[in-house]
C-alpha cells in the first residue's frame, strides 16, 4: 500500500513506498485517489479516457481475431467459456443492429444514427 502526498487542495501529488515527509497517509493501491494520480497525464488531466478509447479499439481486434480463428477452424465457438460466448453473441447482435439502423438520418455532412 503506497503512502501518498497531497497538495493544499487534498489532491494526491506523489506516491511513495515508505512513509516520508508529507507522505504519511497510507492508502490501498485501488483507492480512487491513487488511481486518479496514476492515470493523470503530464498536463494533470485524467488519461483514463485515452485508455478507454484504446481498450475499445483493442476489443474489436480481439473479436476479429476470435472470428478468424473460428473461421479457420483453429478453435470452435463451443471451445470458448459460456460467458465469452454470450458476450461475443451479444456484441455481434448489437453490431448487426447498429449496421442496420446506421445511416437512417443524414445531416448534410454524412450519415448519422
UniProtKB/TrEMBL annotation:
Protein name: Tryptophan synthase subunit beta like protein
Amino acid at each position: 500500500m503506497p503512502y501518498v502526498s497531497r497538495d493544499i487542495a487534498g489532491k494526491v501529488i506523489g506516491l511513495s513506498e515508505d512513509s516520508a515527509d508529507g507522505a504519511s497517509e497510507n492508502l490501498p493501491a485501488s483507492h480512487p485517489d491513487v488511481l486518479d494520480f496514476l492515470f493523470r497525464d503530464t498536463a494533470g488531466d485524467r488519461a483514463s479516457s485515452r485508455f478507454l478509447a484504446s481498450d475499445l479499439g483493442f476489443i474489436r481486434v480481439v473479436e476479429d481475431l476470435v472470428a478468424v480463428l473460428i473461421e479457420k477452424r483453429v478453435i470452435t465457438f463451443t471451445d470458448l467459456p459460456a460467458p465469452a460466448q454470450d458476450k461475443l453473441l451479444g456484441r455481434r447482435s448489437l453490431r448487426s443492429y447498429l449496421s442496420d439502423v446506421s445511416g437512417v438520418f443524414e445531416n448534410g455532412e454524412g450519415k448519422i444514427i
